[in-house]
Amino acid sequence: MSLHGHCNCNAVQVTLKELPEGDARQTAHCRCTTCKRDSGAGGMYVTIVDEDLVEIDDPTEAKKLWTDNLTESGKPAERWSCGNCSSPLFARTPNMPSKVIVRMGLFDDIPPVVTEIYMRNKKSWEPAVEGAASIEGAPY
Description:
The chain is mainly beta. It contains 1 helix and 11 strands; from the N terminus they run βββαββββββββ. The longest helix is centred in the N-terminal third of the chain and has 7 residues, at 33-39. It is globular, with a radius of gyration of 15 Å. InterPro entries: CENP-V/GFA, Mss4-like_sf. Keywords: Lyase, Metal-binding, Zinc. Belongs to the Gfa family.
């Protein structure tokens, strides 16, 4: 199954290509401080995929790069958003070369969350996702 989505203003289209046979699309709830601030909430739904499985269509060159130098690992991460509407699009980290962390809010229909990451940032009043694996920090 491939997924097709876009930013709020529709300037940037994102396609997650069909996965190889036997693989399942893995959705994670990321509670890192950047995802919490980007979403204005308790985190963001993401999927981490090989970069060759992501297609970005940006005919007006709307996507904008922000280099995050405040990462937990101390290594700068690339964070991409739409320069028009500010929708978070995807991120890259040197900790996972050739991978892309795609923001699942771009898509209308997403697979259920199977993992929660950065659980150490979860507030006591926030519910956990029932049945999801729990990782205290980063998934690498």
